[in-house]
Amino acid sequence: MKFLDKFNLVLFSIIILVISLTICILSFGWLDLNLALNGISFLVTEDVATNIVLAVSIILILLSLKSIFFNSFSKEKMESKEGILLENDNGKLLVSKDTIESLTNAVVKSFESAENVMTKVDVDSESHVKIYITLFVYPDAVIKELSNKLQINVKDTIKKSLDLEVTEVNIRIKNISAKKEPNIKE
User: Which contacts (CB < 8 Å, 24+ apart) does range 127-131 have?
Assistant: First the structure.
């Protein structure tokens, strides 16, 4: 959250608090209504007070419009939906989720006991990468060993290729598929 967004949130929270307290105090009769009306009348009729109220009102209107229509979160969310933005002295690089998925699929397909892989990549606002792999395995696969090696290899490959830290590699074995029989020609 950027400074101006935080400032707007705090400012409008204080304004709502003051208005709510004023209404409560007037409702309980702790403040004379005529006194409150005289204060408002002073702010509206006196030249200096009117100018100050007008300036503050314009600033609050502009801050409101900025918060409503120009939300700074939308750009950050779009970047995290598309992938991860890497920056260095020479420029920027946007690594898409598709790139991470393709790299992960290549690693999984290098294992003989894995087949039919589906990959999903989640990137949160702090660029933490979580990978979800769903795959079919052959009957001769040692699933615990396979999943451990897959997790290590996927993390290492993405670190080596993209210099990204993968926080989680979650594997789901969907099914055991039949081993393909080689075609024998007679």
Answer: 127/80, 127/84, 127/85, 127/164, 128/165, 128/167, 129/84, 129/100, 129/158, 129/164, 129/165, 129/166, 129/167, 130/166, 130/167, 130/168, 130/169, 130/170, 131/100, 131/104, 131/166, 131/168, 131/169, 131/170
